[in-house]
Amino acid sequence: MNGNAGTIETSHEAEVAAWKALVIEYQKPNRARAIWQLVNTFGAYAAVWTLLYFSLSVSWWLTIPLAVLAGGLMVRIFIIFHDCGHGSFFESRLANDVWGWISGVLTFTPYYHWRWEHAIHHASAGNLDKRGVGDVWTLTVQEYLEASRWKRFSYRLARNPVVLFLIAPLVLFLLMQRVPSRTASRRERLSVWWLNAAIVAVAIGMSALFGFVPYLLIQLTAMAVAGSAGVWLFYVQHQFEDAYWERGDDWAYTAAALKGSSFYKLPRVLQWFSGNIGFHHIHHLSPRIPNYNLERCHRSDPLFHDVNSVTFFSSFRLATLRLWDESAKKLVGYRRLAELRKQHAQAKLAKQEVGKR
């Protein structure tokens, strides 16, 4: 028994060593590529806000589409923020922290607090025993069946597409990110309060320039688009039929990355706005790889190709998946519950018939 355990452990160590050797080249930040991404992202964002200002004297029919475009660019800014949080965008820690904080102000997300919570997500993704931080609320089939009526109602409400992709993102970025976690350290808590102060300062300045109501409507539109797109991307990257969830010692980091994170094949323009985050299996395997190196790393070796891939159009059916079926190792919809109840009723009836005989 110990011999088998030792063999499995050695095999796992060899597997880890193999992929680490493959990704090391792509973990190196490139200053020129990082600066160019800052220019084409923040430059485009500033240009859109300039056009938004002038559009107010033309027509709201022009303003709203520009606000939607601003929301798309906020997604790309968030990916830069995300990379800075992993210390991968620049080689310099100071540069990562500075640009991460600036990006956080524009995306209403506290840099140090988010970085702390996101690190927990990477350390526990796909682990059924460590759910609850930085993930989409996911119950197993058995947990759902054993839950109280109120908990089942809450779960159905939370997983409803309108709530999950339209309402929850605004609540998350406008309200929940304004209050630090009770378990956060002093630096993480302060990052929330400093960000709140910066948001108020920016809002006052922009309201003086645009007018309070126009700025509010534009910012809310952009936030709604960015928040919904961001939550949708995160959902597709971890909530698919053949995802990976394990308990205890059965959980493995490599498997959780390559099997529990999807490869989201997006059209080029959407890949640009989403900062290559569709190569999520690569990102979870090595968070030190900056977004501008993810695609090249994916293409570098066949190991990275044999993963769960999702296309733009096929991704929409994933919104119907709700619960993790531990017996089938699949994410399933509520229809699976009806099948299980039917099977349970049939088994109970068969048992009663045997008893009568």
Structural notes for this entry:
With 357 residues, the chain is mostly helical. The protein has one domain (2-356). The protein is built from 15 helices and five strands. A three-stranded mixed β-sheet has the order 1-4-5. Strand 4 (323-325) and strand 5 form a beta hairpin. Helix 2 (31-55) packs antiparallel against helix 3, helix 8 (161-175) crosses helix 10 (212-238) and helix 9 crosses helix 10. The protein is globular. The chain starts with a helix and ends with a helix. The model is unreliable at 5-9 (pLDDT under 50).
Major sheet size, sense and barrel closure: 3 strands, mixed
Instruction: Look at the helices and sheets and give the structural class.
Output: mainly alpha
Tell me which oligomeric state these chains represent.
single chain
Global Rg: 23 Å
* Percent of residues in helices: 55-70%
Number of separate helices: 15
* Overall 3D shape: globular
Beta-strand segment tally: 5
Order of SSEs: HHHHHEHHHHHHEHHHEEEH
Q: Trace the largest sheet across and list its strands.
A: 1-4-5
Key traits:
globular; mainly alpha; two-stranded parallel sheet; 357 residues
SSE topology sketch:
Elements: H1 2-23, H2 31-55, H3 60-85, H4 93-107, H5 111-124, E1 139-140, H6 141-146, H7 149-158, H8 161-175, H9 186-210, H10 212-238, H11 253-260, E2 263-265, H12 268-273, H13 280-285, H14 294-300, E3 309-311, E4 323-325, E5 330-332, H15 335-356
Parallel strand pairs: 1-4, 2-3
Antiparallel strand pairs: 4-5
Helix pairs in contact: 2-3, 3-4, 3-10, 5-9, 8-10, 9-10
